[in-house]
Give the backbone structure.
Amino acid sequence: MGHRPRRVAMLSVHTSPLHQPGTGDAGGMNVYIVELSRQLAALGTEVEIFTRATAGGLPPTVELAPGVLVRHVDAGPYEGLSKEELPAQMCAFTHGVTQIWAGQRPGYFDLVHSHYWLSGQVGWLVAERWGVPLVHAMHTMAKVKNAALAAGDSPEPAARVIGETQIVRAADRLIANTAEEAAELVRHYDADPMRTAVVHPGVNLDVFRPADGRSAARARLGLPQDALIPLFVGRIQPLKAPDLLLYAVRELLDRDPSLADPGRLVVPVVGGPSGTGLARPERLRRLADRLGLTGLVRFHPPVGQERLADWYRAASALVMPSYSESFGLVAAEAQACGTPVVAAAVGGLPVVVRDEATGYLIEGHDPVHYADALARFAADSGLSDRLGRAAALHARRFGWAATAAGTVSVYRAATESHRFALRSAHG
């Protein structure tokens, strides 16, 4: 059905695929775009990624991988613009994209694939201008986030809701990470189920794998061999709820004060402040001090994939207490490394984590329930290994090659329906 596109314009306005995930607005979507683009190129579809230039002197183009090009577009001041301020730069970004396209031969791009609502606004315009289909991936949705806000967090603005509604109507195809996300698109945005496809994100299984195991990873990272190590990985912001992990650890210590003995408990937090967390970047450190966890909680900046894989391998469990997750990429990565996950039963996490088999899914956001799960690992030294073996097997279904193959199928369907619509419009 339909033809595989030769070249796709991929739009990532607010965050560059070249940025380190875990810093600023860079996160799972960055990983998604990079890995998907590489796999699409391997299948024979070239990808050009358009992103906003965030520093002066950046080269106009960067080859990310064979067949994958990143194009920097000037739109607004290079630095100091928050994601919330970017809607005012959409006209400038769209102009930059169309200027680049104007220098190419007609039919240079076969399809536009936009990521997140800001990119979707640009994609809507340029796809119509170029006469090609638009495929859009929300990644997160304002209405879903606003329905599950952390205490004190700021709701997404009405302008975003309006923008997302427009994109849902305009796109030839919508890609959802899970069946739950597809249902939310239909329920909250009146998306056409026939134009909404489910394609699971993937994991780089060459990097994220059990390798030489937990003991060796702990030795490389300078961590105690016999400690309980609940790990948090991600952007430090209320949505991701790293504070909930700290409250759960305090509850665990109240139950068993001996865990505070040297070498028995380490709580690594790997990531940087983001979103509304940027307003109070030291908040989590101060909370750790207030809860009496100084020295037990260790803060580390975001790291590259190879090092991140070691953090996963070293952990007793990854703890992911988010209020909203469209998929939960770090949960899949941790499991691929042979590490179980304790996660909130929200969004796509019940797809990624098999409750009681590869980790534990927690209903609600009560620290006591997270402490209950961590207490299981504290009481049973073999639990991490047993769940971890099942986790590694489960994660193998999330390879990026499968994601790319599914995406190409969506591209073909979008191309076919777009051509049919054009034929119908012209009689």
Q: What stands out?
A: The two ends are 22 Å apart (CA to CA). The chain has two domains: 7-202+399-425, 213-398.
